[in-house]
């Protein structure tokens, strides 16, 4: 496989391990998603039966290297905005109890070259605020609500 | 003034109020800074004698609408990276005790048009991690360490 899951104690491998701890659900709200290792971890969870939902930005989902098409092809539910502004969040919620958020877009460029931060928070007050935002966006971006004129 | 401080109970006015609560120091680590209202709040703190330090991204600081030149002109200390990767953080630390961080770049586009998040955290564990990162970057981007060959 050209993109093995990362090993060792890098920031990326720690992020992947947090994601792989999911047992029931993984809610992803990601402006940009081009990192193949992270996409592979998400696919693995989907195959294990974890319920994966992904919200992303319409303008970035089609860019070169985007993993969104691959994830959709694997059967993962993806929804996107239909606005000119960006869906600029970059967070994940594992099992509705662990929030992973920060400045990091899930791109190879960001992981390899940028100065970034990722917070892992289990405090219910913060998790709930982001879970509520996720559910709002998930409903708002329901394809049943799209308008094409 | 063309850019009054925001009033009312918007997300922007709440962010400005948090910043204006600074009494001793404001450490800013911002990928992109073009929002005039936020720049005005930072200048106000500087004039009040609060110690303001600003770290930013070299490639974005010169973009149209950037407030970095204006802040430097006002006498605020600014340092920037000299790498091809982005200094992609977007956080502020007020009085070394309150961390403000999230997906939000300090741009008018982000504030007006995007879906974004901003966390305000006073838990010392999180604040210290970001303060340590700020001090590392502040030293690393010290102009005395620049190389020009």
From TrEMBL, chains A, B:
Entry keyword annotation includes Lipid metabolism: yes
PROSITE patterns from the UniProt entry: PLD
Keyword entries, A-Z: Hydrolase, Lipid degradation, Lipid metabolism, Meiosis
Superkingdom to which the source organism belongs: Eukaryota
Gene Ontology annotations of biological process type: lipid catabolic process; meiotic cell cycle; piRNA processing
GO MF annotation, one: RNA endonuclease activity producing 5'-phosphomonoesters, hydrolytic mechanism
Domain PLD phosphodiesterase: 83-110
Any single Pfam family the record assigns to this protein: PLDc_2
Reaction equation(s) it catalyzes: a cardiolipin + H2O = a 1,2-diacyl-sn-glycero-3-phospho-(1'-sn-glycerol) + a 1,2-diacyl-sn-glycero-3-phosphate + H(+)
Keyword flag Metal-binding: no
InterPro entries reported in the protein's UniProt record: PLD-like_dom, PLD_domain, PLipase_D/transphosphatidylase
Xref: PANTHER family: CARDIOLIPIN HYDROLASE, MITOCHONDRIAL CARDIOLIPIN HYDROLASE
UniProt similarity note: Belongs to the phospholipase D family. MitoPLD/Zucchini subfamily.
Protein name: Mitochondrial cardiolipin hydrolase
